[in-house]
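Run folding on both entries below.
>entry_1
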Amino acid sequence: MFDKLFGRGKRPAEQRPGINFGRYSDNNKTVEKVNRWTDADNLYKEKKYQESIDAFFDYLRDDAADNVILGRNGADFNFQIYQGSKIVRGTGNAEHMQAEVSLAKMPQPSVPVMRRLLEQNFSLYYSRYSLDGDRLCMRFDSDIDTANPNKLYYALKELATRADKQDDLLVQDFSSLQTLDTEHVVAIPDEEKETKFAFMQKWISETLQYAQTLDAEKFSGGIAYLLLTLSFKIDYLICPEGTLQAELEKIPILYFTKDERPSMDKNSDMIDAFQKLQAKPKEDFFKGLFRNKSSFAIVAPQNQKTIADAIAGANTNMVWYRDNNYPKIAQQICEYSISYCQYSYSLPKPMAELFQLFMEVNYPDYFTSLGFQDEYYDGSKNKFNNEAIITMINNIQSNWKIKYPKLDFKTVNLKFDSMVNFNFTYTNELGNLNFDSK
């Protein structure tokens, strides 16, 4: 039954299925794209506003994702920006530009809905909530001569990311509202949904069962690492959207909220939250799984020192668990060291690709069940495919050498004798990378 469910033994013809993992990062620009930002800024200063706008949208566009569309007819232009389940649509001319995104349909006026949006308006810097007939939407507009690249970027980011988060929450919280403008969302195959649901259940069960074998007070720190890593793992590998993502996001907040409560109590709250997530009907879980495009990261970039410090801090804490024969906790702490960064920050593209490789090594059954043919680790034999791992690391570095010429992942430092030592040495190298741009 498990062989059938998890797809063991199946080897589809496609080498790398078109499945995305994790949250979108716009910290992925090539040298050419970064230069287009400089072009946009210089053209704006020269008062060549239309040329500046063209350069800006070229910078914003991720060619691989096809996430931004710009059309032009002389001074008149129109654009579409994809962000999750929403599309920002805009138009402009020689004097003015405007953009809007549909949130939900409100067939009947609702005071609670309007109160919610009125309160949230105070937290917006560039955009605003609006009502167009029975359509709830968000809008932004600007004169062309004040539409500098910085203003456009942060205004459109606010519009896109807020709308993407709020549309599902509004429909969930207010039964009178109806979904709107989601026809572009692409459903994923049922087999993939079943696989993701099964593995999420498996990961939660394994983690909670193991946590129950530990002294809740003495091992409160280790249990916290297990639970937080589990939340980041589900976020990255399952890639939930909408209300499912919102529910998962609440779990780390339970722990990181600054108060006087002991870790043991916070762990208990996280365990309760995971049990509720695990009890969620499969049909409701499936609603939060779909393909989409995005143009903006929902988290900000951080300098490499911040990432290095996070990795070093966690890896230092893992040593006791490793040396005292708690390999499961030690292994998960190493994963936490980088998965926390992936969850919290917009990582440079090569770092994100190296993290993807890390996860493929650690969870081979999951990736095999999704149709990935690369075999980096055989758990039954505790055997790493050293050559394949090193080759992939070198390929990633080579692809980004132009932008990051000082990138140097020292594969000679990797240890392949156990998963704990591999994770430890691998994440240490991630912390030592130099992302100084050309």
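>entry_2
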Amino acid sequence: MDQSIENTRKHFLELLDLKEVDIRTYSPLSLAFIGDGVYELVVRTIIVHQGSVQVHKLNDRSSKWAKATTQCELVRTIEGDLTKDEYAVFKRGMNAKPHSKAKNASVKQYLEATGLEALVGYLYLTGQYERLLTLIKQGMDRVILEETNS
């Protein structure tokens, strides 16, 4: 891991008065919980930087990416790019037993979206920020490309 990124991660924990925790002790749903928020922040950051528009349009654009169906599309475009460890985290998240249901997605799509969120949470909590941002951006670009080619 890049030393400056590792220092940033350690400083972040220090500022919040948090101790290092073995990431393997987190349940996949805990990883998905934090991953959901991080994923949304990254998506919103990308959307805001595309230009200043009305807030309801920003919300519409970001809501699209928060849907389980779109997250499922995104993860399918990056699945082949995942390392062995990343894929294991994704599968662990996908195989978790969430206590909620998707509104407009199949159970399989919802579980794949949960797997993506677990992966995002894992990358975030382990300080792999560059990898996290790269995967989300690649996935978004690929989904948009598939939509324009359809």
